[in-house]
Design a protein that fits this description.
Blueprint: H1 6-10, H2 12-25, E1 30-33, H3 40-45, E2 49-52, H4 61-64, H5 74-85, H6 89-93, E3 96-100, H7 104-113, E4 119-122, H8 133-152, H9 158-180, H10 191-200, H11 207-226, E5 238-243, H12 252-259, E6 263-267, H13 286-295, H14 306-318, E7 323-329, H15 333-350, E8 354-359, H16 366-379
Helix pairs in contact: 5-7, 8-13, 9-11, 12-16, 14-15
Length: about 375
């Protein structure tokens, strides 16, 4: 059973493409960003519209490979291909781009992308134990503030930033309320539908409308649950997705799991709840509060990445997870290496198995993935 409200989220990204054009015609500034490390509150406090640029489709990769190496992460190639081919209206209408030094592939790709758009690249420390990590992050937040003020001809006040932080905190709490409905069994919303809602957050231009629709979806799902209707079966094994970001157009692994009868309860990854579980402090100086929140995101580009282990431990217990599927993109070395440690952690501390699937954006390996998923669910 599927909620009727999902029709809005089905069209969210296509609608956003039209709204991007309308925003520019109305004289609004648009700032594109790629990563969960991007402090989007700062963008909105500058009076601009934040819009996601991270691409997860196979289509533009051939264009990217005219410049980028073939053995590079598909996310990097897809993002670059969409940008330089002119096929991404979000990139086209962006006034400036906010980027970050996460993985090596993205860092070098941004050097090429800077030829196409004005860009600021935040320096993200790769050591999670860096003694001056918070102070370093504060400097990066102020760098971005100064850049936005200069290039967008605006002023970002403490009061405006604090107001936006409160708004975004409420949005995070609302989205986590939606995700938390899948603590129920059977799950009221499928993993692929939940992906559309969370992924679509980065591409909407009417935040109030988006928030209202999330509230409407939550209410509808609660009504469905009360009637005994759900997105999975009582016998379905409960699966948590972790690993690299999974976006619309790249959800083949999630589709295979659900077609095989598994119930995806949530994603821990960047495209899931990784950026939602922690709020920005409303008691601190707003610029320092942003630095504190974003510096603690548990990404594999940081080492050691103990936060991810702690978060996964919490989630597998809270959501009564039967198994974990780690989706690793080809050539994503940090997540690929970390997968072994995650597997051992889950086995030792929770007796929960992990299936790692290394893949790209093509459908060439779909049948192979199906065979492995079928065997994994049977084992559970």
């Amino acid at each position: 059973m599927r909620a009727q409200t999902m029709a809005y989220f089905d069209q969210l990204i296509p609608s956003g493409m039209v709204m991007a054009k309308e925003a520019k015609e109305q004289g609004r500034n648009v700032v594109g960003y790629y990563c969960v490390f991007s402090p989007i509150e700062l963008i909105e406090a500058a009076g601009a519209v934040p819009v996601g640029l991270c691409a997860t489709k196979q289509e533009p990769i051939a264009e990217a490979e005219k410049v980028l190496p073939r053995n590079l992460c598909p996310l990097v190639k897809s993002s670059y291909g969409f940008a330089v081919s002119g096929k991404c209206p979000f990139f086209h209408f962006a006034d400036i781009v906010l980027a970050e030094t996460t993985c090596d592939g993205k860092k070098k790709m941004y050097e090429l992308l800077a030829e196409h758009k004005p860009m600021i690249v935040l320096d993200i420390p790769n050591s999670s134990n860096l003694e001056d990590r918070q102070a370093h992050w504060v400097k990066q937040i102020y760098r971005a503030k100064d850049y936005f003020e200069k290039n967008l001809d605006v002023k970002i006040s403490n009061e405006k930033l604090a107001e936006v932080i409160r708004t975004y905190n409420e949005e995070r709490k609302l989205l986590m309320e939606l995700v938390s409905l899948n603590k129920l069994h059977p799950t009221p919303i499928s993993g692929t539908d939940l992906l559309k809602v969370l992924w679509g957050r980065s591409f909407q231009f009417k935040r109030d409308e988006y928030t209202a629709k999330v509230k409407e979806l939550i209410a509808e799902l609660k009504e469905m649950t009360a009637k005994g209707e759900g997105a999975s079966q009582p016998s379905s094994k409960r699966i948590l997705i972790t690993g690299c970001p999974t976006g619309t157009g790249q959800e083949k692994v999630m589709q295979v799991i659900e077609e095989a009868g598994g119930a995806i309860v949530l994603q821990e990854s960047c495209s899931g709840i990784k950026g939602l579980v922690d709020l920005v402090s409303e008691e601190m100086d707003p610029f320092e509060a942003l630095a504190e929140k974003y510096s603690k995101i548990p990404c594999s580009c940081s080492s050691p990445n103990t936060g991810r282990f702690e978060l996964l431990s919490r989630l597998v217990q809270e959501y009564n997870v039967d198994g974990v599927v780690d989706i690793t993109l080809q050539a994503c070395h940090t997540y690929n290496i970390e997968s072994y440690s995650i597997k051992e952690h889950l086995k030792k501390n929770h007796n929960i198995p992990l299936l790692q699937i290394e893949t790209d954006y093509s459908d060439a390996d779909r049948q192979q993935i199906k065979l492995r998923v079928d065997a994994f669910l049977e084992m559970l």
